[in-house]
Amino acid sequence: MLSFLSAPLPETLNSAISLIVAFVMGTLIGTERQYRQRTAGLRTNVLVAVGAAAFVDLGMRLTGGDGATRTVAYVISGIGFLGAGVIMKEGMNVRGLNTAATLWCSAAVGAFAGADLPLESLFVTIAVLSGNTLLRPLVNAINRTPIDEGATEATYEVQATTSPDNAGPVRDLLVERLERASYPVGGIEVVERGEDAVEVVATLTATAVAAAELDAVTADLARAPGIRHATWSVQTAD
Asked: Are 90 and 155 found together in one domain?
């Protein structure tokens, strides 16, 4: 007789149900990801959910609730490494965060299934699907809303382009004009822009500014002798 038949049927059946629940819930999540052509699609989410369910169920079978608790902790850290593999940084942009978070949630779905909590597994699945679908219109609406610089915490920089020989005076002038406009400078650096040009970059300590005021400062700087171009930029905080 095969060895797996030696296990009590109720335990074997319980494990089978846990894996089936994890498979179905992972399929629901993965189908939406596959439809949107994400890096981690149907098969990846199913495997994450089933794997998490299998490990948690194994922990329960071997040492009961304490074993399942320890297994869940290892599943969480293990999925963290897997999620890190789908996160890519391209310049100032970071891609894959939503995919990594979805994989993490798929593991939670599987963990609930492996712990014999199928209803909770279903609830998490519904929450994940809602976050990836129902919130999309709200995200798009927010992204289309113009940024109010006065209400957004961000890092502001003022740049002035000049010749290498004139970098020192331009740096002093940049600091003086910004402080006159009540925008203290937190840091300043000179960046080479070819053989005959440098860019003096001042980082402001303020996290909110009036765009019109910085426009006036840069316009005034652009008229100063030796400054070829002046502008400012903003980077929103993480």
From this structure: no
Could you tell me which residues are beta bridge partners of residue 227? 162
- Confidence tier at 10 by pLDDT (50, 70, 90): confident
Residues 60-119 pLDDT 10s = 888 887 878 888 888 888 887 777 777 776 554 567 788 889 999 999 999 999 999 999
106 and 205 share one domain: no
- Do 27 and 124 reside in the same domain of the chain? yes
Q: Which residues contact 183 (CB under 8 A, 6 or more apart)?
A: 156, 204, 205, 206, 209, 213, 214, 217
Say what the alpha-carbon torsion angle 204, 208, 212, 217 is, to the nearest 10 degrees: -10
Domain with residue 225: its CATH number is 3.30.70.260
Specify the number of domains making up the chain.
2
Torsion of CA 43, 47, 48, 53, to 10 degrees: 150
- The range of the structural domain enclosing residue 158 comes to 150-236
